[in-house]
Design a protein that fits this description.
By secondary structure, the chain is of the alpha/beta class. The chain has 16 helices and 17 strands.
């Protein structure tokens, strides 16, 4: 009977379906059990489960391997805080007590507190093994609850953290060693700069005085002086560029990021560059800014970059050549400044070697002196200001060096101050007593140089002291209008002498100018922060030195002075 057969068939099929589901269910249970067993027997991480009181109920194979205990030795006998560093457990309890403004008992309560509040906690700790050895671990603690939400225990899963800690320790040691090496390099550069600048100060200073002396040097003497000055300034340039590059590469250089007016910077660069170009018969062309553009950069460093590119364009140009500065907008929000020359140009091989220290691209035997460092410093500075630098060149046609900087809005109070009238050196009015300058310096050559410079000023007279203690005594006794202070003095340093003079009401008003061969920015910042009125580096540039004296004298006129009994000049 078909109907009956059909019914039997349906029943049979239903039984097969039910059997298939049961097989899958049993398979899933076996698989889950295998997974649970694999987890519990894993030797790669520890699993410790406790009851609600913190007593260990489960201690897997990984925990046995890591800690050296058998499960039978700890189950129902101890809690996890007994195998932790007790000082860490105490510190954790104190931290929680402070955080929650309530007392948390040290022990397992401190370890499991957050987990009991429903917050899974992960922290680093030190496990203590059965044999007394220790190792760092990372442990997560989770509260276990039954179907009704009641707390029934805690689960602690831990991993050995020794490798990461060892790597961290090695990395920290390497970073400390690198920092010490950087400090040593900076100290060495500072010392090297000081030692080189000190003799250069005498060489360049006296050569400048001879050049403008009376009577004027003969043509032959003038040629000799020119060679001395040329070599001296070149050596100073080399010292400065090596120092600059080292500071940049060690990450010690600091840059300000502010709106910088391109038109103002270009005017200042033009004033410095055009005289050099005219001496060589090089034509100069600068852009006219119909719209004021401001770039986000460090003003001093932007000038340094542009002047370096302009000097190179003049130096390596052909006789009667030309240099053109061009500015073009570079989307989306930058401006490209290009310096185009009509020099010999660079081959692809030379372009590949550009921006390498001491690499002058085969120009070592040429007439032009150079260090090969300037372009390297320029590139680093542009990149530190968030810009780009590049070059396009054709042999026999010339080169175009360009930089790109980000544009920004003008500052709210942007003003352009123009100085009018020629700057003349002040002379003492008829009958007016000269102003007094005290120079604290232990180097006889430096003292002789400053004496000869001041001798050209009828409005000034010079006193000198050979160390800081004597300088303080003279400042108190003779109340000079200005003090020039060397930094590296026998006995107390120039900075220590400055602090003593600043703390004394009788000398606190006197502007004190540092005059030192220490030219590292860190040293200059330290001195200015200590309270120096100005900081001049050796070798002395006579005009710059005179300008600094004029500014300090103008300030001294407005400072309240303390009346003292006149004393005879020291012998």
């Amino acid at each position: 009977m078909p109907e009956t057969g059909s019914e039997f068939s349906l029943v049979d099929d239903a039984g097969k379906v039910d059997g298939s589901i049961e097989v899958r269910r049993q398979t899933a249970l076996l698989k889950a059990g295998a997974l649970q067993n694999a987890i519990l027997t894993s030797a790669n991480f520890s699993i410790i489960a406790t009851d609600e009181k913190g007593i260990i109920q489960l201690f897997n194979v990984g925990a046995e391997r890591m800690l050296g205990y058998l499960a039978a030795e700890v189950v129902n006998k101890i809690n996890p805080s007994d195998i932790h560093d007790p000082q860490e457990v105490m510190a954790r309890a104190q931290a929680l007590s402070f955080e929650l403004a309530t007392t948390i008992a040290p022990g397992f309560e401190a370890l499991a507190f957050k987990a009991s509040c429903g917050i899974e906690d992960i922290y680093e700790l030190t496990y203590i093994c059965k044999d007394g050895s220790r190792f760092p671990a990372v442990v997560s603690i989770t509260a276990l609850r039954d179907d009704y939400g009641d707390l029934i225990g805690y689960l602690l899963i831990g991993t050995d953290n020794s490798v990461r800690k060892r790597v961290e320790s090695e990395l920290n040691a390497a970073m400390d060693a690198a920092e010490k090496a950087n400090r040593a390099k900076t100290d060495f550069l500072s010392g090297m700069s000081h030692e080189l600048r000190t003799p250069l100060n005498a060489i360049l200073g006296f050569a400048q005085l001879m050049e403008i002396g009376s009577p004027l040097p003969t043509p032959s003497q003038k040629r000799n002086l020119d060679q001395i000055l040329k070599a001296g300034w070149y050596l100073l340039e080399l010292i400065n560029e090596i120092l600059d590059l080292a500071l940049i590469e060690s990450g010690k250089v600091t840059l300000s990021r502010e709106p910088v007016s391109l038109s103002e910077v270009m005017l200042e660069c033009r004033a410095m560059i055009e005289p050099q170009a005219h001496k060589r018969g090089i034509g100069m062309k600068f852009p006219r800014f119909e719209i004021p553009y401001f770039v986000e950069a460090d003003r001093t460093r932007v000038k340094q970059v542009l002047i370096n590119l302009l000097f190179n364009a003049i130096k390596y140009n052909k006789p009667g050549g030309a240099v053109a500065v061009e500015c073009t907008l570079s989307p989306p929000n930058s401006i490209r400044i290009s310096v185009r020359d009509t020099g010999a140009g660079l081959s692809p091989e030379q372009l590949a070697q550009l921006f390498q220290p001491f690499n002058r691209l085969g120009k070592k035997a040429g007439a032009e002196e150079g260090t090969g460092i300037g372009l390297v410093v320029t590139k680093r500075l542009v990149e530190l200001m968030g810009g780009d630098i590049g070059v396009d060149s054709t042999v026999g046609v010339g080169s175009v060096f360009w930089i790109e900087l980000g544009l920004t809005t003008a500052p709210q109070l942007a003003t352009l101050e123009a100085e009018s009238g020629a700057h003349t050196r002040p002379q003492a009015p008829d009958g007016a007593p000269p102003r007094t300058l005290l120079y604290v310096e232990d180097n006889p050559a430096n003292l002789e140089l400053v004496e000869q410079i001041i001798a050209r000023r009828s409005d000034l007279r010079l006193l000198s002291a050979a160390d800081g203690d004597l300088g303080i005594e003279f400042a108190r006794a003779y109340q000079p209008d200005i003090i020039l202070m060397d930094i590296n003095l026998p006995g107390i340093s120039g900075i220590a002498a400055l602090k003593i003079l600043r703390a004394d009401p009788s000398t606190a008003h006197i502007p004190i100018i540092a005059l030192s061969a220490n030219a590292v920015p860190r040293d200059i910042e330290k001195a200015l922060e200590a309270g120096f009125f100005n900081y001049l580096t050796k070798p002395i540039k006579v005009n710059q030195f005179m300008d600094a004296l004029d500014v300090a004298l103008k300030f001294a006129q407005t400072a309240p002075r303390r009346t003292v009994e006149p004393k005879p000049e020291p012998a």
